[in-house]
Structures are given as C-alpha cells and as structure tokens.
Write a structure and sequence with these properties.
By secondary structure, the protein is of the alpha/beta class. The chain folds into four domains: 91 residues, Helicase, Ruva Protein, domain 3 (Orthogonal Bundle); 167 residues, Rossmann fold, CATH 3.40.50; 122 residues, Cathepsin B, Chain A (Alpha-Beta Complex); 49 residues, no CATH class. The protein is 45% helix and 15% strand. The protein is built from 21 helices and twelve strands. It has a seven-stranded antiparallel sheet, sandwiched between helices.
Length: 530
C-alpha cells in the first residue's frame, strides 16, 4: 500500500466510520447542538428533523449524538425504517427492552405497553427518545403511526421525543397533504449542507494528520480540484482522495496536483461524461450559439421583412415578492415562533437544556445561566453583522410579531429561521418587517461584571485586555494586577467605534458582547446565503 511512501500509519480516507477521524465543521456543530438541545428541552415533545444529502455526515452525527446523550435519557434507535406500522412499534419496544411476548401483531397491545413504559420513565425523571435513521424510507402509514406516538402525554408534557434523520426526500415527503399533521408538529428543522472549500481542505488535512502524515501530499490546486469534484461531500472526498493517493504511489509522485486528482475522480465517480460537459459545456454551448446566430443572421438578411413602425412597449408590473409575502404569513400564523427561535439559538451555543427554561430565556433576563448572558437592543443589520453571531430578530407585520433566528448574511440577502422553517430574502425587504429590534446571547466568564470602566482592576480587566489583543495586537497581560487605565480606555473606544457602539470607553453589555465576538469559539453567522 501507499502508507510508507506518504509517511502514513494507516489509511486516512477509509469510508468506515472511526471516531478518531471525526471532523466537525461549523454546520456539523450546529446540527449536533440542534439535536442535543431538542432532546433536552427544545423539542418540547414534538419532532426534530435533520436532513442532508447522502454522505454529508448524518450517520456520523447520530453516532456522536448517542455518545453525548444525558445520563437520564433512554433511546430507541431504528436503523431499518422499511417497516409496517406494527413492525415499527415492535422494533421500538425491542429497542427499549420491553417484554412484548404475546403482544406482537397487535397495535393496541404494543401502544399500551409503550405508554405504560413512558409513564413509568416520566415518573423516574427519565427522557425517552426515538431516533429514526433514513426516515425518508418510512411509508406514509408508518409516519402516521409515529405521529400518533406523540399523543402519548401527561397533562403538561409529551412523553416521547422523536428525531427523524433523512435525505432531502424526507422534506418533500412531509410536504404531502396527507402528512400535514405530522409536519405541523415538527418544532425544529436543520438541513446539513456539504463542506465549503475551506472546510474541505481542513477536513483533508485533519484526516491526514490523524493518520500520521507530517505534511499534506495534496498541492493547493490539488485540494481545489478535490473540492470541485466532490462538491464538499465528505464521503466523496474520501473516495477521490484515497484513489489519488494510490495513483500517486503507483507513479512515485509525492505531490498530488489538479491533474492527478481529476483522473482519480474520473475513475471513481459515476457520470464522468456529465462532469466534462459541466467543465467544458459553456464553451461548447457558446460555440453552438455562435453557429446558430450566424445562421439566423444570414436567414434574416435574405428574408427580412419591410420596416414597420416600432411597437411601444407596455410596462410590465414586477412579480410579487414571494419571499417577503411568505415571511409575512409566517409572522402572522406561526405558533410558538419565539420559543422555536430561542431553542435554536440556545442550541447553537450548546447551553445545557436541563438548566434553562426556554420561556424564561426568551424574556432576555440578563444572565440566562452561569456563563451565558443576554442582551436586548436595537441596531442596523450592518452593525449586527459585525458581531458575527447568530441573533434573534423581532419581526413585526401590523399587529402580529414573531422572533426569528438570523442565520446568515451576505452582501444582498439574509437567511432567517422562523418556526423551524428557513426564509431567504433581500436585505431591502427585511426592512419592511424589522425595525432593528434584536436579542443576543453570548458566552461570558461568570466572574466578569456587567460594567467596567477606567479605574477598575481585577480578572474582568484582564479578560478585556485578552479579548482586545485579538483585535489590535496589544498586550493581554501587564506586569502586576490588571488595571483599567487611560490607554485601555482608548482601545475600548476603538472597539466601540468599529462595532457601531457609542464610544464612551465604558464596558457595558453591548461592549461585552462585542468583546466576546472577538473570540473564535462559539457559533458564527454564515457569510453565504444558500
């Protein structure tokens, strides 16, 4: 094999799951936090839906989820969803180790057994979770049976939390009219996207490093080709990269460039002809258009009609803004939109769901829980984008209002999540339903006071200096106790000016939020709306 040639201890791009090789992009961390919070409190007994294309890492996330479940959680994992409703109930009971001898083939007996177990688990303080992988394979009848399981409840709480993992076809299936009752019970949705180019390159380097490589054999152009041919899908990256390493070994070529990666992709991926059409199709299309244009011009010259009076073009009304109209309907008709948005935001920060009441957190009480604070205010979209953190925007349309999670901002568009559904619209349209109100959550060391100014000293001042050093390269620690002097005040004013905060040199909640935004950890806004 190629291990010794490339200085490897093992195969870095095996498609067999290995926890040592797990690489979590920002999207994967968000999705995992989404699932963990849904199991804790965020789902409130409804459905949590995670979708993604084949090979994007859903199964890996499921494995990580099972490893990080709270101790008081009991799980029924269904891996083969091609089951009848009765078989599905039997599988759930077997996963929970329930005695169903003599009860098989009876829907009522199985549901009664499950209900008794769920009530007993509730009395013991346990949380029961059903996870269905490849849920797009569930039949309509089986999905309806899953929905009926959410009717098992006490007067105050659902007894079963259900997580559906599936390919994009699951979203299409749940849009069917006959499944609208189930779709309405989905309290949290997340669609897992492929890696972007930077994440793909980091993914490749990570796997090589775990396998023992001292350096990456892929050149800069080779990595670009690997991303282009794989589309950022981790499983496809593995297949192409492994073949490229084999080819490099066979040719005794320790630097893997664009040409070799393309050849490896041609050998391993189906639809190579489609790739060449994609790669060179625009040139072929342009040539064809030139030929057609030349022929059309010749025909027109030979058969041109006598000149006629030029027709006066009538103005055409622009089509209605469907995205904005859809958002207006969501503001008016989405129940519990506020709770859903706050559930998603707290999930992205990985706040321990067992310690937080989402309804209380939605009031933005200042300190949500030790280490996490909340800020409510007003600002422009440009100001909020500088913080580079997901935020809650309060949207208003007439008398209706709803909270939405700001997920992504690019030069022209924004991406919002409202009621678990994503909405993409133009920045200019957002102004029709948003007057600047926002709420933000950020991580803050518990020992940091909420106000600091010149003359103060202590760990809070040391933390401020450490954060500012990320921005201006100044000193993080001076000799002796940390002291808020005139020089530090000037540095604070520069930070405030950069973030559109009143430059008074006093570190209050808004400035603390800006300082925390300088830390690379925690969730960030996506910079591409897609």
């Amino acid at each position: 094999m190629y291990f010794e040639f490339f200085g490897l201890k093992e195969a870095p791009f095996s498609i067999t799951p290995d926890p040592r090789y797990v690489f979590l992009s920002e999207r994967h961390r968000d999705a995992l936090a989404h699932l963990l919070y849904g199991i804790g409190k965020g789902g409130s007994g409804g459905f949590v839906q995670l979708t993604g294309e084949v090979g994007t890492g859903k199964t890996t996330l499921c494995r990580l989820l099972l490893e990080q479940l709270p101790e008081h959680t009991r799980v029924a994992l269904v891996l083969n969803p091609k089951l009848s409703p009765v078989e599905l109930l039997e599988t759930i009971c077997e996963e929970l180790k329930l005695d169903i001898a003599g009860k098989k083939s009876s829907l009522k007996a199985l549901v009664d057994t499950l209900n008794i177990y769920l009530l007993d688990a509730y009395a013991q303080g346990l949380r029961v979770v059903l996870i269905v992988d490849e849920a797009q394979e569930l039949s309509t009848e089986a999905l309806e049976q899953v929905r009926l399981l959410t009717n098992l409840e006490t007067p105050t709480q659902k007894l079963l939390q259900i997580i559906l993992l599936g390919q994009p076809e699951l979203r299409d299936k749940l849009h069917r009219p006959e499944l609208r009752q189930l779709a309405q019970r989905i309290t949290a949705r997340y669609h897992l996207m492929p890696l972007d180019r930077g994440e793909t390159e980091a993914y490749v380097r990570h796997r090589l490093a775990v396998a023992g490589a001292a350096r990456s054999p892929f050149s800069r152009l080779g990595l670009r080709a690997l991303y282009r041919r794989s589309g950022g899908v981790p499983r496809v990256v593995n297949v192409i990269a492994d073949r490229a390493l084999m080819a490099g070994f066979a040719r005794e070529q320790d630097a893997l460039g664009e040409r070799l990666v393309d050849r490896a992709a041609d050998e391993t991926l189906p639809g190579t002809a489609r790739y060449w059409m994609h790669r060179y199709g625009r040139w072929l299309a342009a040539a064809a258009l030139l030929v057609l244009a030349a022929g059309a011009a010749s025909w027109h010259w030979l058969h041109r009609a006598p000149p006629v009076a030029e027709a006066v073009a009538k103005p055409v009304a622009p089509p209605p803004d469907i995205a904005l109209e859809s958002l207006r309907k969501a503001i008016a008709h989405t129940p519990d939109a506020d709770l859903t948005a706050w559930t998603q935001l707290l999930g992205r920060w990985q706040v321990d769901a067992a310690q937080v009441n989402v309804r209380d957190a939605a009031h933005c009480p200042g300190t949500i829980v030790a280490g996490f604070d909340c800020l409510r205010g007003t600002g422009t979209l440009e100001q909020l984008a500088r913080f580079d953190r997901p935020l809650i925007l309060t949207l208003r349309d007439g008398d209706a209002h709803a909270d939405a999670l700001l997920q992504a901002v690019d030069p022209q568009h924004v991406k919002l999540a409202i009621g678990g559904q994503t909405r993409m619209l133009k920045k200019s349209d957002l102004a029709d339903v948003w007057n600047g109100e926002f709420s933000a959550v950020w991580g803050l060391p518990p020992e940091i006071p909420l106000t600091l100014h010149q003359g103060d000293a202590g760990p809070g001042v040391a933390w401020i200096k450490a954060q500012l050093a990320r921005m201006d390269g100044g000193k993080a620690d001076d000799a002796g106790p940390a002291y808020f002097d005139a020089m530090l005040e000037q540095r604070v004013r520069k930070l405030q000016t950069a973030y559109g905060i009143k430059p008074d040199g006093i570190v209050g909640p808004e400035t603390l939020f800006a300082l925390s935004a300088l830390d690379g950890s925690g969730p960030h806004l996506y910079r591409k709306v897609e």
